[in-house]
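User: Please predict the structure of the protein below. I'd like the answer in structure-token form so I can feed it into my own downstream comparison script.

Assistant: Understood. Taking the following sequence of 173 residues as input:
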Amino acid sequence: MSRTQRQSPWTPSAVESRPAGTVSLVAHIRGHVRIAAPIERVFDTAADSRNEPSFNPAMSDVELLTPPPIGLGARFRARMGRAGMVMLVELTEFDRPRRLGSRTTSSMMETSGALTFTADTDGTVMSWDWQVRPKGWLRTLGPLAGPLGRRMERRIWTGLKHILENDDGARSS
């Protein structure tokens, strides 16, 4: 694909069962941010979802549901927004400090994918690659879910960049 072509944020899901003749749409959300902090610190801060309310204003509370330490299979319960929508987060890959996979489920969507971390001379490049499957009324947003999701992810991870580069003391796993 050339630089001028854009990949559609919607792709048919190959694994989701559905009635014959219907297509399940999945938003594919990718991006990256450069963070002036050591790769281990960026990974550890992202791996412990209890840190997210410090850099994501939409996240109101997160609790660890499994015993420490945080690693493969760790689960969290998060509350989003004023209504306190509950999301369950499970770490599905844990390759410190290179790759962190997760699956997040809520009444509105299921998201799966991974964060990858690459050290560079100025710190860390953190990339995200998510498959988002809207549920219920959110499916009616259709093609808007991809651009909205990309904007939201950029805002969240720019918040992480801000707290790590300003040493605001996020918890390590």
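That's the full token string. Residues 24-165 form a domain with the Alpha-D-Glucose-1,6-Bisphosphate; Chain A, domain 4 fold (CATH 3.30.530.20).
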